[in-house]
Amino acid sequence: MEKDTHLPLYGVGPFLVAPVIITAIIGLILTFYGFIPKYEIISLNWLLTILGILIVIYGIFFWISAVKSDIDDNIKENKLMTTGIYGLVRHPIYAAFLHISIGLILISNNVHLFFLPIIYWIFLSMMLKRTEEKWLVDLYGEDYINYSKEVNRFFPKLVK
């Protein structure tokens, strides 16, 4: 990537987030209307609902924090952002949609949907490695490689 160019502002984001959101919504709708049988863990219903709500709120926090960051300016100026929300996760907007989807699936308490977040994580990880993260390594080199060793893609490290 030439020095005068910068990463696209939106990258492949909409193309990666759309399948995650769409399949989560379809799964929830199909469960609601009985097309996917609902196998729930009744004894954990309240726990899963509360945990799901907290994870949705956590996802909203990621999204708001990413939107309020100066990432657009940093992209235009070819600066690697590693502070604020980007000090917790490398891809906070993807993390936001991943967390929101996980939360909604937990709230549904349908065991048949519990595999979806694993698929979402694998899908997003594989696609980001081949696209945005490749671009970031090309643009920032060792700085991005070192950053990626310190900061996870979607889930903050519990211990630094």
Strand content: under 5%
End-to-end span in angstroms? 32 Å
Characterize the overall form.
elongated
Order of helices and strands: HHHHHHH
Estimate the mean pLDDT confidence: 89
Task: Kindly describe this structure.
The chain is 62% helix and 0% strand. The model has no long low-confidence stretch (mean pLDDT 89). The protein starts with 12 loop residues before the first helix and ends in a 10-residue tail after the last helix. The protein is built from seven helices and no strands. The chain has one domain (13-150). With 160 residues, it is an all-alpha fold. The protein is elongated, with a radius of gyration of 17 Å. The protein has helices spanning 13-32, 45-68, 71-76, 92-108, 116-130, 132-140, 142-150. Helix 1 packs parallel to helix 4 (92-108).
Keyword list:
160 residues; single chain; mainly alpha
Write the layout of secondary structure elements.
Elements: H1 13-32, H2 45-68, H3 71-76, H4 92-108, H5 116-130, H6 132-140, H7 142-150
Helix pairs in contact: 1-4, 1-5, 2-4, 4-5, 6-7
Summarize the structure.
By secondary structure, the chain is mainly alpha-helical. The protein is built from seven helices and no strands.
